[in-house]
Amino acid sequence: MRVLENPDLEEACSLLRDGLANGEVLVLIGECEVEYEGRASSTLTSGERVVIIKQDGSILVHRPEGYEPVNWQPPGCSYRVSVSDDGLKIIATRLSPHEVLSLLFRRVDLIVSGKLQDKGVFSMYASEDEMKRAIELDPSLIEEGLKLYTSEKDLGDAGYADFVGEDSKGNFVVIEVKRTSAGTKEVLQLARYVNEVKQRVNRPVRGILVAPSLRKKGQVLLEQLKLEFKALSPEKCSKVLKKSRDVSLFEFMERWRR
Amino acid sequence: MRVLENPDLEEACSLLRDGLANGEVLVLIGECEVEYEGRASSTLTSGERVVIIKQDGSILVHRPEGYEPVNWQPPGCSYRVSVSDDGLKIIATRLSPHEVLSLLFRRVDLIVSGKLQDKGVFSMYASEDEMKRAIELDPSLIEEGLKLYTSEKDLGDAGYADFVGEDSKGNFVVIEVKRTSAGTKEVLQLARYVNEVKQRVNRPVRGILVAPSLRKKGQVLLEQLKLEFKALSPEKCSKVLKKSRDVSLFEFMERWRR
Asked: Is A226 left (phi over 0), alpha (psi -120 to 50) or beta?
């Protein structure tokens, strides 16, 4: 990793050229102004910022506050860098659609260039709300033939059951969903819902606790109370949702920036 | 700006604490793993990354490729940092909703801390498509009482007019929109559309060129051809669109990450 503190603009430009040629990650901190011209256009007057150019040619301009970049370009940009009396100019061009992001550094406080190795695996797991949405989309995640009547069923003092429905044999089913390992507390919560429902309906009522796992004491209690457990992980729910998700963050950002 | 190259983890931790206490921007480059636990959860196994903590307490974890951060937290996080045998741990906690982002650095190649001054003004101007959308939403941007029939009207060999419509007196109106200063070329383009429309309809036809400005030669030609010009800037269209935009990038990202 090459690091230059308070370089003059020629030095910064030369490291920048070299890093870009080698496909390295570059981080620049300094005072710059920014212009964007493409499907839309924007200007940002002078200020101190952190700029990252990534190994895939994407670029991000970050102000000292706010977690969104103020300007950016996606991977695949080509770069031209030069120094003039005005300062150090970085032009990131995207061909299709034609979009040009221009940065003019008046002063560079720090420039870093280096190749980063990242083979890490990113795994995203669903939230409890997302697990419920997945179950709504595909009730067979719980069992084949299950039909859901309603979610967040108001059971008076007993609380709100995540789902009530009917199984393939016509039994009434009460479902409680948890995204982490369940125990006696969750079993008792389900039991409360089931007891309440039994007083309201005139047919067999099943209670199913849905969670990635059930701890030992919970298992014992579950059996005593004649309730049921269905193992379902956030990971699996994420997959169901992913299939049905029609807009990615990337597409949205692309649409938004137009 | 304080810069440490290849610091040991204790040194890095101490600069990190100091920078956080002073509300500085921090940039860390090194090998880390990341866990997120909140409404959803995620894990990212070890790799080399660029991490930015901003002056408002937001944090971004960037892999060497892809312009989106792999993990992030919005402004207002509180931080705990510590060193153990495992490495340098950074925990960014958001209270409501409760979300915890944990980073464990095995190795720090570079840490930078400094207060950045950024009073720059960001201005975003609409694209031509957005200008057209704004006009569709509010035709009075062109003139009071204007009704639009259709956009991208096919006029055969003459091309496609951006809009055709009718003014408050029942005249037929043909509109061509440009997002940058217009000249003779754009005037002639509009004239072509107007002539084509005149052969098709049996009533007076007006042609209006809409752009932020019209250059001198264009003005002369426009008058000769008895066409009209309406000044409309992308800035103004942006404001119209902003009012009607129901989902911000921030809200979207928040929804997406759940």
From this structure: left
Chain B: residue nearest A5 by CA? B3
Count of Cβ atoms closer than 10 Å to residue B117 Cβ: 10
pLDDT tens, B149-204? 988 888 988 899 999 999 999 999 999 999 889 999 999 999 999 999 999 998 99
Q: What integer pLDDT is reported at residue A245 of this predicted model? A: 55
Q: Find out whether B54 and A65 touch, Cβ atoms under 8 Å.
A: yes
**In Å, how far are A51, A174, B157, B205 from B221, measured between CA atoms?**
46, 76, 22, 18
How far is B10 from chain A, CA to nearest CA, in Å? 21
Task: Give the type of residue at A228.
Answer: E
Q: What is the ipTM of this complex?
A: 0.72
Give ∠ CA B204-B207-B213 in degrees, rounded to 5. Answer: 155
Say if the Cβ atoms of A60 and B67 lie within 8 Å: yes
Residue B40 at interface with chain A, using a CB cutoff of 8 Å: yes
Nearest CB partner across the interface for A127, out of B43, B114, B258:
B258
**Residues of chain B with C-beta less than 8 angstroms from the C-beta of A48:** 116-118
Q: Which two tokens stand for residue B84?
A: 């153990």
Contact A195, A207 (CB under 8 A): no
Whole-angstrom distance, CA of residue B55 vs CA of residue B76: 9
Span A17-61, pLDDT tens digits: 999 999 999 999 999 999 998 878 889 999 999 999 999 999 999
Identify the three-state secondary structure at position B250.
helix
Beta strands (DSSP E) in A136-204 are 147-154, 160-166, 172-177
Q: Which amino acid is at A69?
A: P
Taking 60 as the threshold, does the pLDDT of residue A210 lie above it? yes
SS3 category, B159? coil
CB contact under 8 A, A117 and B46: no
Pair B71, A124: CB distance under 8 Å: no
Percent helix, strand and coil across chain B, each to the nearest 5: 30, 40, 30
Three-state secondary structure call for residue A89: strand
Angstrom distance (rounded) from CA B211 to CA B204? 23
Identify the CA nearest to B30 among candidates B7, B10, B60, B11.
Answer: B7
- C-alpha distance from B33 to closest chain A C-alpha (Å): 8
**Confidence (pTM):** 0.72
Give B44's Cβ-side CA count (13 Å radius).
24
* B109 in contact with A, Cβ within 8 Å: yes
